[in-house]
Design goal:
By secondary structure, the chain is of the alpha+beta class. The protein contains three helices and four strands, in the order βαββαβα. This is Ferredoxin.
Length: about 80
């Protein structure tokens, strides 16, 4: 996994990240967007446009944001 979308996106889902993603790896879930780790090319375009600062590189996540890695994995396992 490269980038992860975290708590500020829940309920917000502004969508600017979807518009700038060059590989269409950001998928809308029920309560937030998710980044498909198999498609993401780690360009970082999404982080620059996120209006709620919800997108982080996986290695830079705070401990309280770690559950969002598993949430994203679960989302793509069910998709």
């Amino acid at each position: 996994m490269t980038h992860v979308i975290t708590a500020p996106c829940i309920g917000e889902k502004a969508g600017e990240c979807v518009d700038v993603c060059p590989v269409d790896c950001i998928i809308e879930g029920e309560d937030q967007f998710f980044i498909d780790p198999d498609l993401c090319i780690d360009c970082g375009a999404c982080t620059a446009v996120c209006p709620v600062d919800a997108i982080f590189y996986e290695d830079d996540l705070l401990p309280e944001d770690q559950p969002f890695v598993e949430k994203a994995k679960q989302f793509f396992m069910e998709a």
